[in-house]
């Protein structure tokens, strides 16, 4: 590759990292180019390490970086066997197998996979994955359009079905069912998983060669966990979000309680100030203030748990769980078309799933037809719990402000917000949809500051921009 081609590849790779959500600055991009001048460019391990040191800031971003690196700096081209002298015979054997001998190829590859899994040779496992994709992963359907599929390789080889035979070979002469078997089973499971990952990576590489790196990078790279929309988060992503929400909740609590002036925050101590002024002839040159008594604030969370924001409701529960340890008093109210207090479901040590299940079964959040009615919910909240929000209370409202064209009850909401120390509305819908259809986000935004909060990244941005009072 020429110097100009190398620069173009670097620029495109950095652009792909930014497109995937990694915060790569211009300075870090230049650091990567300087690192490339100090390493052996023919050694992919050095190149990967140099790039990672320059552009990866957080450990969760490493998986996305590695996947894009393998696409933009592939370990091989085509079948990847032309430069290998040790395996030329094996490569020729695979390419010359006729379609009618597919069963023979499959059996041969399964035998080799068994031997490699027993030996634990990582490089041999990678080469075998490449050969397996060459022989079993290609399809020409529809005619004239070649494609590659991971499931074809894994279904043909079925590596998990080799586990019993592999355990028998490893534990020969030893007692089954003990610690040795558990260790061997875990070791083999990890090797099988690594082989599956190598097959998947090889298929991505082949597709990138056929269809272009940019096209495959857009479809094969998962969004970073902080960029996953709460409304579309899967079960596994919700579990990962839980680990992200807890530190954000601590920072949110700090921001909501911090004082703009941390020095003379207490009231003037008149008696001690007058006594101190005696040494200066009665002139109070120094004022003495009473020490500020630290306290945890109170928090009220008012959240929509209707079906349209079910996934966001799960995030709401996560946030409430995290915040309950940071505030002296946390009260949580849920609503669909009426409002009910659900604080009792947020016991310490409880499970998020259990809390959601109990809320669905026991909470009185449906009054009429089960469709969102923000206006009626705000009225019920103001009437039944008039003392819930006080000047010591921070209020968080979470919902998409979709009212199903029903009354908004702005006076009730305005009264609640007026009594709160601080109030914010976190909306999981994109800002461009606010005010469209039955969305009352614009009207409610005139009463309480409305913040777009579709993912953890926006929640973190909201927390960082939150000014102390």
Structural summary, described in words:
There is one protein chain. This protein folds into four domains: 3-72, no CATH class; 88-221, no CATH class; 235-258 and 295-465, Rossmann fold (3-Layer(aba) Sandwich), CATH 3.40.50; 268-293, no CATH class. The protein is elongated, with a radius of gyration of 31 Å. It has helices at 3-19, 26-36, 44-55, 62-72, 88-95, 102-119, 122-136, 150-157, 163-170, 179-211, 213-220, 235-257, 270-277, 310-323, 352-362, 374-384, 410-419, 441-445, 456-465; strands at residues 138-139, 147-148, 298-304, 329-335, 339-341, 393-398, 422-427, 450-452. Helix 12 packs across helix 14. The protein is an alpha/beta fold.
The oligomeric status of these chains comes to: single chain
Strand and helix order: HHHHHHHEEHHHHHHEHEEHHEHEHEH
What's the main sheet like? 6 strands, mixed
Strand percentage: 5-15%
CATH fold title of the largest domain: Rossmann fold
End-to-end Cα distance, whole Å, is: 58 Å
Number of helices: 19
| SS class | alpha/beta
- Radius of gyration over C-alpha positions, nearest whole angstrom: 31 Å
Count all strands and give the number: 8
Return the CATH class of the largest domain: Alpha Beta
Overall mean pLDDT: 80
Summed up, the domain count is 4
Shape: elongated
Q: Regions with pLDDT < 50 over 5+ consecutive residues?
A: 82-96, 259-264
The CATH architecture of the largest domain can be named as 3-Layer(aba) Sandwich
Across the major sheet, the strand order is 5-4-3-6-7-8
């Amino acid at each position: 590759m020429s110097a100009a081609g190398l620069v173009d590849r670097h620029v495109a790779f950095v652009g792909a990292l930014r497109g995937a959500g990694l915060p790569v600055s211009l300075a870090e991009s230049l650091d990567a180019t300087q690192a490339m001048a100090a390493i052996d460019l023919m050694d992919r391990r050095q190149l990967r390490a140099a790039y990672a040191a320059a552009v990866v800031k957080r450990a969760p971003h490493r998986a996305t970086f590695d996947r894009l690196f393998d696409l933009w700096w592939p370990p091989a081209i085509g079948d990847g066997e032309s430069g290998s002298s040790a395996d030329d015979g094996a490569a020729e054997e695979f390419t010359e197998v006729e379609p009618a001998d597919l069963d023979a190829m499959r059996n041969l590859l399964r035998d080799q996979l068994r031997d490699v899994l027993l030996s634990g040779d990582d490089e041999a496992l990678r080469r075998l994955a490449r050969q397996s994709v060459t022989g079993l992963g290609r399809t020409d359907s529809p005619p004239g359009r070649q494609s590659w599929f991971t499931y074809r390789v894994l279904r043909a080889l079925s590596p998990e079905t080799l586990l019993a035979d592999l355990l028998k070979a490893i534990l020969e002469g030893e007692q089954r069912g003990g610690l040795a078997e558990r260790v061997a089973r875990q070791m083999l499971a990890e090797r099988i998983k690594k082989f599956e990952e190598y097959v998947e990576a090889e298929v991505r590489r082949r597709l990138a060669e056929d269809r272009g790196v940019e096209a495959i990078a857009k479809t094969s790279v998962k969004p970073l966990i902080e960029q996953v929309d709460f409304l579309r988060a899967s079960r596994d992503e919700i579990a990962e979000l839980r680990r992200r929400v807890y530190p954000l909740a601590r920072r949110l609590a700090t921001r909501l309680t911090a004082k703009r002036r941390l020095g003379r925050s207490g009231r003037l101590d008149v008696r001690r100030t007058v006594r101190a002024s005696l040494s200066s002839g009665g002139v109070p040159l120094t004022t003495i203030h009473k020490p500020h008594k630290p306290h945890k604030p109170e928090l009220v969370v008012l959240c929509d748990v209707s079906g349209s924001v079910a996934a966001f409701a799960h995030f709401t529960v996560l946030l409430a769980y995290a915040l309950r340890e940071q505030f002296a008093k946390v009260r949580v109210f849920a609503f669909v078309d009426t409002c009910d207090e659900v604080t009792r479901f947020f016991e310490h040590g409880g499970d998020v799933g259990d809390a959601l299940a109990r809320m669905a079964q026991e909470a009185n959040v449906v009054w009429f037809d089960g469709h969102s009615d923000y206006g009626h919910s705000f009225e019920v909240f103001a009437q039944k719990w008039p003392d819930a929000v006080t000047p010591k209370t921070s209020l968080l409202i979470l919902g998409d402000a979709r009212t199903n064209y029903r009354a908004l009850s702005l006076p009730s909401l305005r009264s609640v917000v007026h009594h709160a120390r601080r109030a914010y509305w976190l909306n999981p819908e994109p800002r461009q949809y606010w005010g469209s259809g039955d969305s009352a986000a614009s009207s409610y935004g005139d009463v309480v500051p409305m913040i777009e909060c579709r993912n953890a990244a926006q929640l973190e941005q909201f927390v960082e921009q939150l000014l102390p009072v």
